[in-house]
Amino acid sequence: MKKVYFDSAATTKLRNEVIYCMTEALKTEYGNASSTHSYGRSAKSLLENCRKEIASHFNVTAGEIIFTSGGTEADNFILNSCVRDLGVERIISSKIEHHAVLHCIEELEEKHGIEVNYVKLDDCGHVVHSDLENLLKNSTKKTLVSLMHVNNEVGNILDIKKTALACKEHNALFHSDTVQCIGHFELDLSEVPVDFAVAAAHKFHGPKGVGFAFVRKNTGLKSLIHGGAQERGLRAGTEAVYAIAGLAEALKISYQNLEEERTYIAGLKRYFKERLTAEIEGVSFNGACDDEEKSTYTLLNVCLPVTPEKGMLLLFQMDLKGIACSQGSACQSGSAGGSHVLREILSEEERKKPSLRFSFSSFNDKEEIDYVVEALKEFVNS
Fold first, then answer.
1. Are residues 21 and 136 located together in one domain of the fold?
2. Which of 88, 201, 223, 378 is in Cβ range 3.0-4.6 Å of 144 for a Cys bridge?
3. Contact, 171 vs 151, CB < 8 A?
4. What is the CA 187 to chain-centroid distance, rounded?
5. d(Cα 136, Cα 142) in Å, to the nearest integer?
6. For 280, left (φ over 0), alpha (ψ -120 to 50), or beta?
7. 317 backbone dihedrals φ, ψ, rounded to 5°
8. In 107-144, which positions are buried (b, 16+ CB within 10 angstroms) versus exposed (e)?
9. CB of 244 closer than 8 Å to CB of 256
């Protein structure tokens, strides 16, 4: 059976260079980076060189990069500490954020009485900036805005600089879940006044279980994990040096190859959309994912013209064909409630049709796209 992996928004295939880098670190840098002997100092040197290299991609200082287990931990760390340590009383977000943000905000609202406002979205799911401005103006409470840069389900891109400047103008803190952005888009944090951003290595061909939080200096955040003084006292626990080495290597290669790979992957997405439109009458695309200017080049969220009853078998049929994709995001697959993102931006009638997210990488090719299109066409016409 042919196997096709079109689920890179969930996680990516490791690059061979990253595997080699991590293997070498496992073999040679096994000292504890907090130890003062030569083995520890060597591991610490590798760790800090990785931190400096990562910081250089975003024009920030090494001290502003805090290693975590991934995007979820980083989001939770930032949101919780903003309320607990910075006196945030109000959070502005959207209802199509990743659950790492949404569920954390819900808990802060329930346990700490935080006021929560959700910004309006247009028909495609983009933040209505005028509504964000109104929300920022109409309160004297200390406010944190939390809006993701690239939506993980439909690919919509937030104007992150415009949002950051609006927050700065109204003295609000700004946190952005940048998990789907890092490694795929340039992000100069010396020009974009974001206070907090996050990354997960497995979204750009690095290992799972490691990421980082960008914490703008002098913000005053404090650790949520207590123990040793690792990570400038902001994240206790012995660092996984080999995983951090893999993260840094994956990020370096992603940005070295960014233009070439972006052009190639965007071409795959364009070809996929064109083939689907030509072969399947009534196919449509959710959010702004078919707009090359307003969505990421890495994914396409496809709505198929079949009945709800037939649609229940779609993901199963794709798996039988060896095709890996997602119904909504991988983080919530199996949820009876379906995609919270599509629930916000589609009508009830539109939501009755099945939708799948296909996400791409440089490891894919047009032959795989042809195979998927034929499988979808067969399913729709059967």
1. yes
2. 88
3. no
4. 14
5. 10
6. beta
7. -65, -35
8. ebeeeeebeebbbebeebbbbebebbeebbeeeeeebb
9. no
195-199, 337-341, 357-361: which range is least confident on average? 337-341
- Which residue matches tokens 């009534």? 282
Q: Are residues 229 and 275 in the same domain?
A: no
Question: Backbone phi, then psi, for 213, in 5-degree steps?
Answer: -110, 135
Q: Which domain holds residue 368?
A: 4-12+257-381
Q: CA 213, CA 164: separation in Å to the nearest integer? A: 17
Task: Report the pLDDT averaged over residues 197-223.
Answer: 97
How many Cα neighbours within 13 Å face the side chain of 68? Answer: 26
Evaluate whether 84 touches 221 at the Cβ level (below 8 Å).
no
Q: Are 249 and 17 in contact (CB under 8 A)?
A: yes
pLDDT band at residue 332 using 50, 70 and 90 as cut-offs: very low
Domain final position from 256, 272, 294: 256
pLDDT in tens, 91-115: 999 999 999 999 999 999 999 999 9
Of 233, 256, 279, the last residue of a domain is 256
The residues that are catalytic are 331
Using one digit for the tens of pLDDT, what is the confidence trace for 116-134? 999 999 999 999 999 999 9
Q: Which amino acid is at 228?
A: G
**Chain position carrying tokens 């809006």:** 147
What span, in angstroms and rounded, lies between the C-alpha atoms of 47 and 348?
A: 50
For residue 1, the model assigns a pLDDT of: 76
pTM (two decimals)? 0.95
Q: With beta carbons less than 8 A apart as the criterion, state whether 121 and 127 touch.
A: yes
| pLDDT for res 328 | 61
Both structure tokens of 294: 């307003």
Distance between CA 246 and CA 262 in Å, rounded? Answer: 21
